[in-house]
Design brief:
Strand content: 5-15%
Number of helices: 8
Mean pLDDT: 87
Order of helices and strands: EEHEEHEEHEEHHHHH
Oligomer: single chain
Structural class: alpha/beta
Strand order of the largest sheet: 1-8-7-6
Number of strands: 8
Number of domains: 2
Low-confidence stretches: 1-9
Amino acid sequence: MSRERPDLLRQSDGFERIHVNLTVSLIATSRDCDGHDPCIRVCRMDDSLIDVEAANIKPIYDYLPVEGTDGRIVGLFSAKGSADGADRDDEFVGDHMRPLSEADLIGADATILDFIYRVRSQPLLVVSGGRINGLVAWSDLQKLPVRAAVFALVTGFELTMYEAIKAVFPRGEGWREHLSDTRLKNAEDVYEKRGGNESDVELLLCTEFCDKRTILKKCLSFDSQARDSGAMPMSKREFEDEIKRIENLRNPLAHASSYAMKWDHVMNLRQTVTTLLELRERIKTAVLARPL
């Protein structure tokens, strides 16, 4: 067994690479039903609105892909109240569908993060090998691969905070003075439970997300006017608010709670992911710009 100690300053290596294999194909509903997994429900251009509404049950879909006479998907049909006011059978899907555009398509190998950036109220059709073979909707954001992708982002961000603190205090544990006695005692208790001096765990790794936020807020420089290239280009309050936003996403992820059940939650998820990626780069830049 190797006696090599872990490189604690490279904890967040692979931050970008980890998401390459977490793709849309993992969460999409397939077009080809194998009898076990659910498959997407489609309609045809020559289907009557009344027939489509009658068949759109258990579950009810808001949007249905539309197949042309050759079996290719050629558009999207909004099935919400499709037959309202239609008392005749001469109202057809082809008269009401929206033809496909590039904006409706996403590659099966696109990352889940790509999907989070592109998510919309209407579904996206998943393309692989030149064929539309699935569908992905904003309701799919609750699925396990998405949780894994987003939690990896949040965990990677916390490790970036750890690395930043280590870079600011390279010769010891000067960061301790920035925590209250209660918060420091909590970290020390965790440290002892994990083996203390007889393990490769260090005290800083036993602090919580909020502790790292507190330390960085007190030891980094801030300049909301962005005049100082070595400072975070924001105020301390803005910094704290942005990290709290990330922390508020972390908690439901860690406890398997819902975080994207409503459309405004979906928009908050996208904004939080954007904030996380931008803030991570700002922290790294600010730490590198500090005088040695």
